[in-house]
Amino acid sequence: MIAQVLAQAFESPTIDYHALAPEIVLVSFAALLILLDVVLLEKGRTFISALAGIGLLATMLPILTLAIDGTDRVMFGGAYVVDDFSLVMKAMFVLSGYVVVLLSTNYIAEGDYWENEYYGLLLASLTGMVMISSARDLISIFVALELLSIPVYMMATWRKRDIRSNEAGLKYYLMGVFASAVMLYGMSMLYGTAGSTLLVDIGEAVGGEETTSIVTLAVIFTIIGFAFKVSAVPFHYWAPDTYEGAPTPVTAYLSVASKAAGFVALLQLVMVGFYARDDVYEPVLWILAAASMTVGNLLALRQENVVRMMAYSGVAQAGFMLAPLAVAGKIGDDAVVATVTYLLIYAAMNLGAFAVIIALARKTGSATLDSFNGAFHYAPGLTVVMTMFLFSLAGIPPFGGWFAKFAVLAALIDANTAAGVVLAVVAAVNSVIALYYYGGLARRMWAEEAPDGDLTPVRVPVSLVAALGLAAGLTLLFGVFPNLVSEVSDVSLISTLGG
Amino acid sequence: MFIAAALIILSGAMGVIVARNPVHSALFLVQTLFGVAALFVLQEAHFLAAVQVIVYAGAIVILFLFVIMLLGVDKVEDLNVEPIAGQRPLAVVIGAAGIGLMLTVLVIATDVISGAHSSTGPLGESDIDEIAKSIFGDYVFAFQLTGVLLTIAVVGAVVLARRAATDPEPIPESAYDELVAAQIAARESTLTAEGGDGTAQDGEETTDDGEDSADDGEAET
Asked: For residues A194 and A187, what is the distance between their CA atoms, to the nearest angstrom?
């Protein structure tokens, strides 16, 4: 018996630990944080968040060494790929995770819902994101997606004695599970067609002529699953309630990192897996993009709560990010570049906007638009920075947002098709609509009187200042020197087709 | 054989949704999971079939039943109250549209689904070997991270469910009473709106059904 087993000795897969180092560091720190909580209990309150931040900075090290090394690493027969695209996205996830840790430091420690595990969950979720940027087969994508989602379901309901937070977590959980189910159904059909879970093999099988109907269904279902994740219309309805009920740092995390992770997976699926079937995915994504931009913006106009407004503006921004994919068949890798550019800039400016919302809520204790009235009179610094983020989100130079919008519009027009041009017009009109509510919030902060003439200044803790500085610096830098972004985001997915 | 298994699965799945008693739903779920095990046997994946029966049909559904009974929700839920008016007709329309879309795609399909196995060759020495090779070979990274995922899920669930020593006082009883009173009032108003004297009878009938089916459930288990 033993001889038999030894005869067909197990061939262990070759593992490149350097390529996996970011994930390994993150998981180690997540485990460390959770274990420390068992030992330290209340004593950990003061430094656990700093330790989480150190963990994230430590994760940047292997990402940087991998970037300097510069060779594409392929593992597990093409299921796990470390290339420029994945490194850029990994760096973005880790940095936005770092900003979220900074945002959470005081928010979580001062609330009566403090628990150490928060940071453990956050790091575990980031592990999923770091993994998804390298995952090039269906199983890895699915495991990574669940690993990044499940901790966030629980973080959304972290204020567990607040019924709104419970609602947020439950709604997000049910919608997320439903989306996963739809997506898995699509994936199972993809596997049935291709007989392989590797995106490269799926790309070959999907491009074939015979398997039209099943492939159409599979592509549509898979895209719908991710449309939930990135909160694209008409799959956006969980977003406003979840964003409003969840603790605000978690909302920032949801609207930036979680959304970006959905886009990363979508980019990989569309560009590597479905690329040959642009007759199927282009119309679907076109509708999603146009509907998200329009509906998101129109609903954002009517919101009274700033977090809900940001939720709908996030829906609209997701439409902009989807737009280049809707013409991906014509422009190839340019679509990836445009979306990645938009994601990077969006991460900086949106995290910044949430940082200001958190800082001001420390004084006002509310998130209604009215509570922003007259902020200039007691918090001039915050008001200036917030105006910058809002104008950046609206796409006004010299802040980063204009380049993001420019990249998307350029990609759409480059496609040189009627659909592309129409979508570009929709996008342009929507930028103008968005200016109305972004500008409206800025006007409230500058021109209105503070409620009750209360002019006591806001005390902004160090960690929030650091987060604001990071986000504001990047937003300005990206706007003034857009070639910085375009150099970083000059990535390609199609060239790695060979595996 | 395939058709028999498919029928078992589909009828079980329908039963899960249609049954008005959570215990019945759980038992229908067992039926579905057995059907899936039968499908695994058809594909000559005997190990997976065994795991499917032991883990899903055995352990997981038993846990479901534990939870249902411990929480005391093994009663018929009142489905007559519709929290958001119009959502059910809308759900029917959307569901029908989805099924319609799928059927259309399948009907206009140029490639008719034959039902033939896509892979006909032998799996290898044994299916256990093959599973081990894929789990610890190509998919080892995803496998390890699944472990992380499960750990994290347990940690988070415990944190959310536990009551810390520093918990503030629970919601006062009076507030709860008010909530219940408001719900009862809301329900009565809907029932009266539906029509006059049927109110009291409706209520009685529902509770009777609940007791009956609860008894049934126990008898079956």
From this structure: 10
Domain containing residue B71: 1-78
As a whole number, mean pLDDT of residues A228-235 equals 86
Name the residue with tokens 């970011």: A22
Q: Please give the mean pLDDT across all residues of chain B.
A: 72
CB < 8 Å to B164, chain A: 115
Indicate yes or no: CB of A210 within 8 angstroms of CB of B132. no
Task: Render pLDDT for B91-135 as a digit per residue (tens, 0 to 9).
Answer: 888 889 888 877 877 776 655 555 556 555 565 667 788 788 888
Residue B136 lies in a domain: yes
Same domain, B5 and B59: yes
Q: Determine which helix (DSSP H) or strand (DSSP E) holds A380, and give its type and residue range.
A: helix A380-394
Mutate: best of B111, B125, B133, B149, partner A, most A CBs <10 A: B149
Cross-chain Cβ contact B140/A210 below 8 Å: no
Expressed as residue numbers, the domain containing A114 is 2-497
Judged against a pLDDT cut of 70, whether residue B75 lies above it is answered with no
Is residue B96 situated within a structural domain? no
Please indicate, yes or no, if residue B123 is contained in any of the structural domains: no
Asked casually if ipTM beats, i.e. exceeds, 0.85, the reply is no
Q: How many domains does chain A have?
A: 1
Residue B94 lies in a domain: no
Contact criterion met (CB < 8 Å) for A160 and B140: no
Contact A124 B152 (CB under 8 A): yes
Distance CA A96, CA A88 (A): 12
Chain A nearest C-alpha distance from B142 (Å): 5
| Residue A410: Cβ-neighbour burial (10 angstroms; 0-12, 13-18, 19+) | middle
> Band of the pLDDT at A71, cuts 50, 70, 90?
confident
